[in-house]
Amino acid sequence: MLITCPYCGPRDVSEYTYQGDGNRTRPDPASTDQEVWNAYVYDRLNPAGEHHEIWQHSGGCRAHLAVTRNTLTHVVSSVSFARDAGHKKSDSRRKTGAKA
Amino acid sequence: MVEQESPLKPVWKPGTRGNFSDGVGVYLSETAPGSIVQLAAWHGEEKAIIAAIKKVAGLTLPDGAGGGAATGTKAAFGFAPGKFLVVDEQEGLVAAFAKSVKTETGTVTDLSHGRTAIRITGPKAEWVLAKFFAIDFSLTAFPVGAGRSTVHHDIFAQIQRSAPTQFDVYVFRSFARSFWTALCHASEEVGYEVK
């Protein structure tokens, strides 16, 4: 699997470190809403298809990247610097407490 | 300044080794520069750092990812967004940058004793390096002066093409002896000279 770093160009996946789901938005640190925090920590979309992820080019420029990867085919359809854009909020994210 | 001792000293064996059926393929050496400095620009301050490199080191860096320049005694290249490595044969580069790079522009980190600079030059330099790193070493994809950061397994390396058939590889000092030994083994195939 190749990921095309916006700075370094196409590099092997072994140069990258997976940093987790890119759909998560950290709740307000002052929030005491248990459900919101529970969803942030545990709920994942686990889609069979396009997935927003955060990767770090740890064996290269060390930038954090917002990557869209297809979990079925490993096709990487978009890569950008996480600091610039990041992922748009996913509409498909299920609501807190909703059944899967 | 403290006199630096090369980490390659215990394995340093000058001379020629390997297969010379086509002549010497690569020449391996340690450049042991006096100064290796890392500059990092705060977001949006990249141009100011490039200007500081021009002012202090006299090197004009081209725009774009991995852009760099090299002379006989000095070299500079970008290795990450807003980050640059500047190298000088002489000591004292850190003090000069500390004066010209303001706190609100970016940071200056002295790596002079933290990195080991290994030079690989010769007609087979591209071939030997391609055995270590999964990047394109052709002159069109990796022009003279340009820099790349990549890894050989866990050995992080910053590579600059300082001439058409010459590369300078900057590795962590603690990994340098291991990398050098591997480099010698990989060079046996084409015949190498340590000098």
Structure commentary:
Chain B: InterPro entries: GCVT_N, SoxG_het, TrmE/GcvT-like. Chain B: GO terms for molecular function: sarcosine oxidase activity. The complex is a heterodimer of chains A (100) and B (195). With 100 residues, chain A is mostly beta strands. Helices cover 9% and strands 33% of the residues of chain A. In chain A, strands 3-4-5-6 form a four-stranded antiparallel β-sheet, with no helix packed on it. A two-stranded antiparallel sheet of chain A has the order 1-2. In chain A, a hairpin with a 5-residue loop joins strand 5 (64-70) and strand 6 (76-81). In chain B, helix 1 (46-57) packs across helix 2 (93-100). Chain B is α+β, with helices and mostly antiparallel strands and 195 residues long. Chain B folds into two domains: 1-32 and 114-195, Gyrase A, domain 2 (2-Layer Sandwich); 34-111, 2-Layer Sandwich (Alpha-Beta Plaits), CATH 3.30.70. In chain B, strands 1-12-2-8-11-10-9 form a seven-stranded mixed β-sheet. A five-stranded antiparallel β-sheet of chain B has the order 4-5-6-3-7, covered by helices on one side. Helix content of chain B is 21%, strand content 35%. Chain B starts with 14 loop residues before the first strand and ends with a strand.
